[in-house]
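Issue 218. Parser rejects a valid record. Input:
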Amino acid sequence: MMDILLTNDDGIFSPGIFAIYKKLLKLGKVWVVAPDGERSSVSHGISLTRPLEVHEVERSGKFFGHALSGTPTDCVKFGANRILKRLPDLVVSGINAGPNDGYSVFYSGTVGAAREGALMGTQAVALSVASFKGTHFDAAADIGIKVIRQLIKNPLAKGSFLNVNIPNRAKGQIKGVLVTHQGEHAFQEDYIRREKPYGREYFWLSTKAMPKSSDLRVDTAALQNGYVTVTPLQSNLTDLEAVKSWGAMKW
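Output the parser choked on:
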């Protein structure tokens, strides 16, 4: 039976993780190890300076999984080493509320957890739906499980994983599935100043997306146009062309 380690960055009580959990039960044994609360935008961070606490969680009156006080990446590491005590066959991260396309892959805890699975040497996938409210998690779970079945049939090389983004639409309104490149859009950022009582200032980070490409080969554009985007990512970030040009330099 396949061992599947399931985590996320929205927390163990999120609706997204429960939606994909129910689908994954058809594929094998599902081991849930997820953060005990919201851990969005923690990237690939791990806990080195504080201890981790873990406790069992029930959903719908039945044992669901283990809640960990750390990051999504902590959950993958802890799950493999202490819960399963072996490498899982598959790591699934999500379903995340909100898209993780373009440069978001560098900030996303959802993507970080999937990358950790790839670094461990197992198959891994990050699942996200492009909405923060009114989210069609059940439709996203139906699509996510289809992508996962394809991944099982067509495994990636060690260190690679899938980043899947799903439009927030009913299943019949999604145009199709496209295999895409990671987009390179950036964000307009600012820190909005506000005041607490008695005048003490504080700041909120505010972001606004820059104009994006209309090229459907790119994840952001394809997602905006109603397509599911499946983007194979690799963990080795080496710029091979720069290695060649810099390697030819005299020092």
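Fixed in the parser; the record now loads. The two ends are 55 Å apart (CA to CA).
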